[in-house]
């Protein structure tokens, strides 16, 4: 999904929380990527860990310290990447609500034919796309390890 707005990354993440109760967390440090023009560019990134209602999501600023991730039109300010497509119930209403947020000029599903050129997504190794069962299994293993350490 693409978003056009003059919001700072923090303010956009806060608006998503205020509107949809999606608590995005700032990834620290922001990701650094070497794009084809040989510039190391640093981009703000926020992560939503997912819930029963929403999949995991990443909010990524297009404009980095040196260049943009996508430099061709349409030229969004942010990308909202979803772990799974088509899992948000009533997505059209969700998108309509997003477009009604003041100072968001436009939010839309980025054209699929243009996403094939998103080679930078492959550079984001920390975006581990997993099935929900895998996430739950990892969570349970973490809980078990924590209980073992505390003797519970």
Characterization of the model:
The chain is of the alpha+beta class. It has one domain. The chain is built from four helices and eight strands, in the order βαββββββαβαα. The strands form two sheets. It has a six-stranded antiparallel beta sheet with strand order 2-5-6-7-1-8. The protein starts with a strand and ends with a helix.
Set out the fold topology.
Blueprint: E1 2-5, H1 9-20, E2 25-26, E3 31-34, E4 40-43, E5 45-48, E6 57-61, E7 78-82, H2 91-99, E8 104-108, H3 112-115, H4 132-150
Antiparallel strand pairs: 1-7, 1-8, 2-5, 3-4, 5-6, 6-7
Query: How are the strands of the biggest sheet laid out side by side?
Result: 2-5-6-7-1-8
- Low-confidence region ranges: 128-135
Structural class: alpha+beta
Query: In the residues, how many domains can be counted?
Result: 1
Tell me about the largest β-sheet. 6 strands, antiparallel
Total DSSP helices: 4
The tally of strands reads 8
